[in-house]
Amino acid sequence: xxxxxxxxxxxxxxxxxxxxxxxxxxxxxxxxxxxxxxxxxxxxxxxxxxxxxxxxxxxxxxxxxxxxxxxxxxxxxxxxxxxxxxxxxxxxxxxxxxxxxxxxxxxxxxxxxxxxxxxxxxxxxxxxxxxxxxxxxxxxxxxxxxxxxxxxxxxxxxxxxxxxxxxxxxxxxxxxxxxxxxxxxxxxxxxxxxxxxxxxxxxxxxxxxxxxxxxxxxxxxxxxxxxxxxxxxxxxxxxxxxxxxxxxxxxxxxxxxxxxxxxxxxxxxxxxxxxxxxxxxxxxxxxxxxxxxxxxxxxxxxxxxxxxxxxxxxxxxxxxxxxxxxxxxxxxxxxxxxxxxxxxxxxxxxxxxxxxxxxxxxxxxxxxxxxxxxxxxxxxxxxxxxxxxxxxxxxxxxxxxxxxxxxxxxxxxxxxxxxxxxxxxxxxxxxxxxxxxxxxxxxxxxxxxxxxxxxxxxxxxxxxxxxxxxxxxxxxxxxxxxxxxxxxxxxxxxxxxxxxxxxxxxxxxxxxxxxxxxxxxxxxxxxxxxxxxxxxxxxxxxxxxxxxxxxxxxxxxxxxxxxxxxxxxxxxxxxxxxxxxxxxxxxxxxxxxxxxxxxxxxxxxxxxxxxxxxxxxxxxxxxxxxxxxxxxxxxxxxxxxxxxxxxxxxxxxxxxxxxxxxxxxxxxxxxxxxxxxxxxxxxxxxxxxxxxxxxxxxxxxxxxxxxxxxxxxxxxxxxxxxxxxxxxxxxxxxxxxxxxxxxxxxxxxxxxxx
Length: 754
Known about the structure:
By secondary structure, the chain is of the alpha/beta class. It contains 28 helices and 23 strands. Among the domains are: about 1-70; about 75-185, CATH 2.40.50.140; about 340-400 and about 460-495, no CATH class; about 505-745, Ribonuclease Z/Hydroxyacylglutathione hydrolase-like (Metallo-beta-lactamase, Chain A, 4-Layer Sandwich), CATH 3.60.15.
């Protein structure tokens, strides 16, 4: 039975990596398959039943996906004004420029508009606007678009996350009218209570250090945690503790179960009605459920509640189910409720952690001591989570075992209970913050230790199952011979490095409305521009560029070129410098420890030539503007050349065309295809085979302009766009220039045609 449950989950997992959903007609094959499995015997029956369970998981996830995708924003209503009425269904979150919130649409006022039931809206700050609160009923005029996110190698799948949360359109509010101050419902009552608790916590703690962390531990408001604090938690490996997670929910459930069991046993009448263990299981489950509601019933806490529900059901069934059976049933229930859970790193980390604990704690003849058990669990978690951490994050905190040894008991059994009680008895909030402060001092010290974090490339896919086999061998009970051989199974993850298939790889990253290009030769790497900043704590550097560089095994940049001083080209530069060593910076404007780009600068890396074509050494007149002063870089390999032209405008394009030497097989079109850069002579002289437009999806500038696209299409160039194609990778090999669109190569069924 356990194997069949795992096969069902595996089928659902496989579906999430498909480029297209299967036809519903395939479900009809399950009927004869089940009949055959019932009539077969022995191993044949087990194999047929397993195949049916795997197929059932695959088709079940497909059916759920069909239902969710059906609630979609009609393409013809993208970018058009529509009037809707509904209720704010989530806690509004204030950003740098706008409030963001989920909106449950109850009525579409605009005739003919096809609007999904759940949308994500932003309302930009303006004087005199009424404050937003959960549970309010509004009539909004909105402008929406279908879910869209940047798609890059080793990057975060924003579209997949929106699908999991059931959000089928995003957009912003143009104007609105408040219809009702509060519409009561189970969801809005919870969200309004969360809002009041957040306000009370932040008001009580004021400007005390790490007040935002306490708010996050009470009610899951992770936006209250600063970027510097997240960095410390990430580097010390305790990030799972600093928001309401499965660990905290389990801890609260365990505490409630213990108290119920302790008190229930002292009443003979209650014991005659229900055994203490069954009552404790119900109490723990209810405590977990209400604590998850306090956290907004986020997906990670939902998974924990479902797991605990299976455990409670096991107690009430009266059957002696093994821990591994309970784990398998928990997997099944989670996927049954949320087939997209397999896309979340937390899903794999939480279930794998439980599996590792069971692996080192089950099947032993003698009961080990508390200290030995604790050391065994720490060892199993440290070794066993390595592949998963490398796959999802590309780094391992080497100080994590020591940081967690202090942080887990302090946060779980002291800080969180005091913070929760402080939501009612506010003086305890101050005590909770006082207990957390010394822990933060310790974590900040550990973060600064030499080699506190191991950072490396993304391991090859085939090395991951090999590594898990090695981990299982290492964690076998003492007495099993040659357990140390399991260590060799882990080596491919670390030793098999990514390779550039030819002389050069040029990656035009998908950063939205901006530009960032990574150029790799055999032994060198260059970053041309660093994309836009998205908010105070989020930019292209930490969201796109650094994950790509780490995944590709680039530990140092030999040069960073910043074409000109616009935020859509420099927004991520500071984040890149903070995480990746940069040997030198070249820019068209003054930068610390950098040099100015000038025509005639050239160098050669591994047989690949780099030459700066603009700006002129004499400089440009002030009236030309910073766009025209962009660093124009031509990179030439044996198989062809790439031209990176920043945001140069028509006058500079014409001058470059007159000077010649601008022909390139790959052109990143200047100024994202804006109307200011449309010199026919430049397009003719460059004569690119591929014209790349780096633009944001439905950007407000209307880039690329239709006439610019037509200009390059008429010259014979293949038109490529990052908003439609995702990141674009050009490999210069002996077979020529190989082009890959990441949105097509890594196609998923939720990537709708744009």
